[in-house]
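Why does residue order matter? Because the sequence determines the fold. Keep that principle in mind as you read this record.
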Amino acid sequence: MDALRATKRKLFSEVRDVVVDLPVFMTAPLYRHWHLHWGATAAEIAAWLPGDAFLPRAQFRPTRAITIDAPPDAVWQWLVQVGCLRGGFYSNDLLDNLGHPSATAIVPDLQDLHVGRWVPMSPSATPSEQTAFKVHSYEVNEWLLWSKPDSTWAWRLTPTDDGGTRLVTRIHAVYDWRHPLMAAFGVLLMEFGDFAMCRRMLRGIKARAESLAEDANRPAPRELSVGGPA
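Structure:
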């Protein structure tokens, strides 16, 4: 019974998150110029990121960022386990992880990062270049690049002077109008859905990494001595 109540609470929370984000989904194209650079500084927007040279004709090119009060290695692990029915996307689980809650802990079995590994975007039993990114390249705790033929998704982690991390992400996505249905789906997904999902994902990573860092820095409880002095 407790498990059923917990499942219902989680489902209610996921539905609530989608409802809260609905106005953002519907209105994102109206303030596209602003949300394409949400959280990023002018220097971060102008800076080179891995994958920048791959799709020069990409129509969708957001650069977004967030400050995280945790060191890069505490952030990196959350990125490594991203993927549908892996660690999730720490965003709207009802929409991007089939209602399965995104991970709230580091999962050792999902830390198997290597070039060519699939990063599934859908629950397809057999990932493909249409349904998943691949890990293209990376430098541990510094940057990570996912790619597929029509898009790239890059992440950069830069340590701050106070021991935190600036997490910057950039997407390049091409709308290939030689395939109208796929291009129209891409427009719907990116122009309407991407900002709300990406912002929630960045905030989800921030909350998880900061929680992990707090746990690591919390002093161990002192043992109580039993009995008096000898």
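Residues 2-216 form a domain with the Alpha-D-Glucose-1,6-Bisphosphate; Chain A, domain 4 fold (CATH 3.30.530.20).
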